[in-house]
């Protein structure tokens, strides 16, 4: 009877609660850090969606030029790099944001821009129908034939749809979680160790690849690829963009 009373005493219950708290606390911290990190990833994805639309529209207004697409992407991604200090908002802040955005959007290790449509085959097939002979006609589309010409793979209406895909390597900023996501999803170890602990997992630097997306970077940067696409009808005749994959 005395042992039973001791087992149900408030002191014993307090000790049990402390043990349970010690087990739950690290899990709770990881969930909070994970929620913060995925919030940042969502913000970057939303900004990238807008920036890719701006870039594609810029390309549609400038004959599909890769340079114009890059300029639009840099401008669209500026909000991600605009960090005011003390509420100050001036031209120096905008200039700094543009420089940071330009540096990352033009770095081939961080950003890949692909003109998905129209294809080079479509450009070669339909350029013969243009007056200049080097562009896809953009005028009077409603009256043009919908037949596919010369193995282009699409009719001339579809060839006037500019589709751009951008993959950006976002740098994860939340400690511990950034390394876990990188080592588990982006660059996992080539031969995972069975029975390894969480400490072992955080100790490893993944497989050490530099050829996988978002792995060619300094060792203290943990990046994750974020991809977005946009489609805009050409407002000018599509010409050779200079590059089909950039920047």
Descriptive account of the structure:
The strands form 2 sheets. A 4-stranded antiparallel beta sheet has the order 4-3-1-6. The model has no long low-confidence stretch (mean pLDDT 83). It has a domain at 2-118 and 160-169 and 230-246. It has 8 helices and 6 strands. The chain is an alpha+beta fold. The protein has helices at residues 2-7, 10-61, 66-77, 91-105, 120-126, 156-159, 177-186, 198-203; strands at 111-117, 135-136, 161-171, 223-233, 238-239, 245-246. The protein is 45% helix and 14% strand. Helix 2 packs antiparallel against helix 3 (66-77) and helix 3 (66-77) packs across helix 4.
Question: Secondary-structure element sequence?
Answer: HHHHEHEHEHHEEE
Number of strands: 6
Based on Cα principal axes, name the global outline: elongated
> What is the rounded Rg?
26 Å
For the record, give the distance between the C-alpha atoms at the N and C termini, rounded to a whole number: 79 Å
Helical proportion, percent range:
40-55%
Largest sheet: 4 strands, antiparallel
Structural class: alpha+beta
Count of discrete alpha- or pi-helical segments spanning 4 or more residues: 8
Strand order of the largest sheet: 4-3-1-6
Q: Which percent band covers the strand fraction? A: 5-15%
pLDDT < 50 stretches: none
Mean pLDDT level: 83
In short:
The chain has 247 residues and is an alpha+beta fold. The protein contains eight helices and six strands; from the N terminus they run ααααβαβαβααβββ. α2 packs antiparallel against α3 and α3 crosses α4.
